[in-house]
Amino acid sequence: NIAMAAQMTDAHRRFLQVLMSHGIMEGSEARKLHRRCCEIHKVYYAHDKLDDFISTINSHLQPLFMQIRKGMSEDDGRAHYALVNLAETEVTKMASDYTENELELFRKAMDLIISSENGFASSTDILNLADHLKTKKMKKKEAEQVLKVFVEDRWLSERNGEYTLHTRCIIEMEQYILSNYQDVARKCNICHSLAIQSQVCESCGIGMHLPCVRKYFRTQTEPRCPQCNDFWSCDIP
């Protein structure tokens, strides 16, 4: 049974199909799906072997330049799994779904979010850019609708009129963002993945995700930077 599980089975195929239809899936949902797929197709199931199960799928996806990647929600630190197209590492992977001026608005929103201090951009600031698109100007009402679609398609997240990058977007575009925003994009000092919403050390400039900050300082009586050991001046979430 265990030997069989290393090969691509119908359980693996079903898991991949469901994940493809969702685009992204929270860790607990992925674990439930793993179990259900194994039970339906009578394949060996081990509750702690989801990542092995996924790496079997990934070995078969490799020739297709696709991969299931694990990432973290910047809001709550929960694991997520997303299917990523490795052949297209830029915003061009969105090109089939959106018009040129919609893509330009997305890029401009991304610029604002990544260069901001807290990883958020206000709807007002983003909508003000709609008048200055090079491809084709967009009316504010139209731009509002486009932002709504970006949220529905899980490229952006919105909270009280403030926008940030959705977990799906961060997982899919991590390499693109790190190479195209080298001056401002940073990796979390704790988990070493891209950090958009983060706290930054005032002394040495390293950044940490809010869930990583919370976890790291949980056991410390006095919060000190893991890099330079200076006092951590930000409020611990």
TrEMBL record:
GO biological process: double-strand break repair via homologous recombination
InterPro entries: Nse1, Nse1_RING_C4HC3-type, WH-like_DNA-bd_sf, Znf_RING, Znf_RING/FYVE/PHD
Localization: Chromosome, Telomere; Nucleus
EC supergroup of this enzyme: transferase
Example GO molecular function: zinc ion binding
A Pfam family reported for this protein in Swiss-Prot or TrEMBL: SMC_Nse1
Keywords per UniProt: Chromosome, DNA damage, DNA recombination, DNA repair, Metal-binding, Nucleus, Telomere, Transferase, Ubl conjugation pathway, Zinc, Zinc-finger
Highest taxon in the source lineage: Eukaryota
Domain called RING-type: residue spans: 188-229
Assembly and binders: Component of the Smc5-Smc6 complex.
Recorded family membership: Belongs to the NSE1 family.
Reported function: RING-type zinc finger-containing E3 ubiquitin ligase that assembles with melanoma antigen protein (MAGE) to catalyze the direct transfer of ubiquitin from E2 ubiquitin-conjugating enzyme to a specific substrate. Involved in maintenance of genome integrity, DNA damage response and DNA repair.
Protein name: Non-structural maintenance of chromosomes element 1 homolog
Annotated gene: Nsmce1
